[in-house]
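hey m, so remember when u said the tokens were messed up on ur end? i reran from scratch. heres the input so u can diff it against urs
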Amino acid sequence: MSAIVDTFIAPPCTDSIEILYQDEHLLLINKPAGLLSLSGKNPQNLDSVHYRLVKEFPGCTLVHRLDFGTSGVMVVARNKAINAALSQQFSQRLVTKQYEALLCGYLKQSEGIIDAPIAKDPALFPRMSVCAVKGKVSRSVYRLLGYETYPLADGTLLPVSRVRLLPETGRTHQLRIHCQHLGFPIAGCDLYGGREQPGSDRLPRLMLHASQLHFTHPVTGRVVDAGSHCPF
């Protein structure tokens, strides 16, 4: 099997990371779209959430990631013990994640569940694929919030559906591939059909935002509800 080569070079991101909350144990941040969560192997992909934060908060580590094009709420551990405690909550599915997205076209169903197993496929790298044989259990809940027209720079109005997405599992690219599987890809998604609708190739970003994160503070035991306003 040939080695996988990642040729992606992230363009410069001038947007800053917003600190939503901080204490001696963890940070809650609002990640801008167009910023890697972790630095890549290519030295041109050095800039990332972790690269920026560790300068101000030495020893901090990422508990989870958001895709390069996705914006929104992330929790960052400030030491290894907190990372382990939060990682356990994620692995036991005790963390509730909520996203907001614009889908290409007008979604017919008002709500539903997407149950489609996701697998890695080296031949398709960096894309994942739905595979009933090799795929891992992957489940997402969606709810239609309304129909809209997104204005492009040239005045074109793109028909989109605003939806709330709740992933019950945490597979790589899960929401992007599940929306494509539903037949309504996330607008602006270059890997899973979100730039095929006429005009959608001119969207400024992936229209996916992590709007809420719900978990238990590993030290205080308090329930944390972190939120970030959707920027589109």
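this time it looks ok to me. The chain has a mean pLDDT of 94. if urs says something different then somethings off w ur setup not the seq
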